[in-house]
Amino acid sequence: MRGGDAAGGRHGLRGAQSERDSRDSRDSRDGGVSRDGLAIALTAVARGDEAAFRAVYDQAAPAVLGIVRRVLRDPAQSEEVMQEVLLEVWRSAARFDPAAGSATAWIMTLAHRRAVDRVRSEQRAAERELRAASMPVAYDEVADAVESSLERERVRRCLDGLTDLQRESVTLAYYRGYTYAEVAGLLGVAVGTVKTRMRDGLIRLRDCLGVG
User: What single DSSP character describes residue 188?
Assistant: First the structure.
């Protein structure tokens, strides 16, 4: 009986192991990944395995969003940075070293670093905008010169000398009456970018038209 019990125990262990193997296989097919399997999944991602990346994405995204949100506070920016982090995971999975730490810690480090970089970038943009705002430009003078000039061909050539973003920003603001925020929305760029490009464009227009 004891021998039979031992044999039954061995069969039971093998059955349990088989069930775990089967469950792991199902998780793999369904795109799921356990915490312990995240490192293995990253190794597969490094080989270009899209199914493995989907599994990593599904598991890591909530935690990445959480840590980014704590740094940025802004929900929209947090979503955007989360996508950037997971794209970086896809591109740089080969750099993950299991000997240096867990897969979760590696991904969270990427997330925190990217969030901090975004904060610093926003701060630099704000500082540039403040500096630009402190440098007076004769906007009304330039606008009047453009609107009242009878040399339309000359004006057109001057506008053609601007970059696409400068020309579009100036045209939308001065010829169509859009606000900075509306121009930014139409062009799909930040308001600070519109202000900077418009300022540079007006300076170039002023020089080209000989105003001032």
Answer: T
Residues 6+ apart with CB under 8 A from 141: 206, 211, 212
Domain limits, the chain: 26-131, 137-209
Q: Can you read off the two tokens belonging to residue 16?
A: 């349990």
Mean pLDDT of the chain: 75
pLDDT tens-digit profile of 31-56? 445 556 899 999 999 999 999 999 99
Level-2 CATH architecture, domain 26-131: Orthogonal Bundle (1.10)
Give, in order, the Cα–Cα distances in Å from 128 to each of 34, 164, 173: 45, 21, 21
- 177, 109 contact by CB (below 8 A): no
Q: Which pTM was predicted?
A: 0.48
